[in-house]
Specification:
The structure holds 2 protein chains of 2 kinds. By secondary structure, chain A is mainly α. Chain A contains 23 helices and 2 strands. Chain A has a two-stranded antiparallel sheet. Chain A starts with 11 loop residues before the first helix and ends in a 25-residue tail after the last helix. In chain B, the strands form 3 sheets. In chain B, strands 1-6 form a two-stranded antiparallel sheet. The chains are: A mainly alpha, B alpha+beta.
Chain lengths: ~500, ~220
Amino acid sequence: MNRPRRPRIVPASRKAADAETGGGRFAVGIHLGKAKPRLLVALMGILVFCSAQGFPSSGWAEELLVRPEIPGYQTPDWQTAYQRAAPKPTWQEWLDVGYLAVGLALASWLALRRRSRTGLLLLAVVSLVWLGFWRKGCVCPIGAIQNVAAGLADPAFLVPWSVLVIFLLPLVATLFFGRTFCAAVCPLGAIQELAALRPVRVPNWLEHVLGLVPYVYLGLAVVWAASGAGFLICQYDPFVNFFRLGGDRALLLFGACVLLLGVFVGRPYCRFLCPYGAILGLLAKCSKWHVSIAPEACINCRLCEEACPYGAIQTPSAPLEPTHRPIARRRLAVMLLALPILVALGAGLGAMLDRALAWMHPTVRLAEQVRLEESAQAQGIPLPTTQALEAFRAHGRSKGQLYAEALRLRRWYRWAGMLLGAWVGLVVGGKLIHLSIYPHRTDYQTDRARCVSCARCFWYCPLEQVRRGWIRDIAEIVPPDRLPPSSPSPSVG
Amino acid sequence: MSCPMHSPESPRPEKSDSRSGPLTSVDRRQFLTEGVRAAGAVLLGAGAVGLAAHSGEKEPMVWQIDPDLCTACGRCATECVLDPSAVKAVQFYPLCAMCDVCTGYFDPNHRERTTAAENQICPTGAIRRVLVAEQAGVPRFEYHIDEPLCIGCGKCVVGCAMMNGSLYLQVRHDRCCNCNQCTIALACPAQAFRRVPASRPYLLKRKAQAILAAKEHQG
């Protein structure tokens, strides 16, 4: 290549970048030198002009070609073009919040008062279309967890009022009505509810174990968002790419797998991943009202036993026999004692995870790359450069600054890892304590933490069927040996 | 509607029963439940008020590319949830040297210096080349971005970086839907994406800032 010499107008770092990205072909000089001498002269002229004029205060003088002064020519106004930001439509925010509020109220009314599964399914379809496909799944209380976490951790990060309301509304609704948000308002729940065609029951032990995952995910997502490493829940949302009708192929495949699994295992995302569902489950445990399987007092006919695809029906349990009581009491005491130990153990293990956790932060990753390159250079080992390194060099930030930032993040992650570990320990300990308590239940009830108020079980209840007028008497479907002892009247009164 | 099966011997414990007797487990649980509910409500309210009170001096944030970090790798064109991308090339006119042979406009292997598509570096022909004047036999051109055509691939940005670098990529906020987690930001190898205050949603290159400062200094 006979590249004609010309004065340096490109900084060395950028030249390296060009060579790496194939910009080396970009030798304009080849054309200039051979065929277009006039242009070369022009270019030299510009450079002379540049050095004569210069930019005294810029510090870039020898690198820039100077813009010619053309008499009578007005430079287009760059500012109007630059400051053009679309005003955010506030009506959209109001509409989103309004839909959420109306949807929650409607879902609660349909589930608790009307006891209408058809209505809930219709509402779920509307939510899927509105919040899912129209609003692209971005009116999302699940994702709002991260905004709130980032808002609490970063003093400069604003949580807009609409996001705050979107985060809080379902929580408040759950305190009163149970997880009706999951039933028919959440688009992620809706798409899975519609997909659950052949649900099988997950073994109880597996349900308990997998049920811990959302809490861990919640902790991780909060740490991620608070550290500024990114919004984990949005990144790995299985269905958002469906709503956007395109996206990363791996995530589309993940979504398809979750949906396919959802045909057989009801709502796998809601039950075994959704961090917002974890919070809602805790709140639903102390909700003021909640759907009940039977419209009136349960008669223990056991017809609903297998109805729930989400493992949310609790069967009656006999009170503990007196001989077992001391054992149960001892077990509970052990678990209670184990809780602080588990928390401490989790905190210790979590603090040891600081390196792994910090690696998830892009700044720390960059610092490690720079460090690696530095040490490789010191030993004379050639390392291929990366775009991240190129960008770092072009930006001119000092290595010291980067290392200091990375070290600060590492220290931050040590504390965050400790808290995260303690949280996981607390969750596991809480689960163990929960499993060591034997509540005395006399009838079939919903497990409020797991129940998403989908209303599937209603139709299985003979009392409900009588209420709807589908059958005249429960004796029509309840086997005689399961009829309640009190003498049934032969027909509706 | 009354049900025939509703029997008075219903096994469900009545709330009123437990009031008179000693503390039962039902009573205790109910007390706990109500306590937790009240605590939850108070916590939610306090959190909301706290966040709302803190938001007074803060501004909403939007995504933007730091042009000094951007390497114009081309991912903006492919990773955005919008098609075409919300990222567009912008021309910072005061930095443009109005070259005849614009390395941001012409393909490195262009055959002739015409506006024919095969000579252009832009795959969609989104750059308009307008002759402004001829100075001492040197034609001067202005280059404009035709935004509806621009797909944000950054090919012109790479080209222009050989010269003054007046072309660079920015997130256009009349298109950006401001996702909670920008998918381009995740894919960006240079970490050039960050959130900026919505009132100043565009970023200038340091070079451009220097030019503006110099002009202000002179004028």
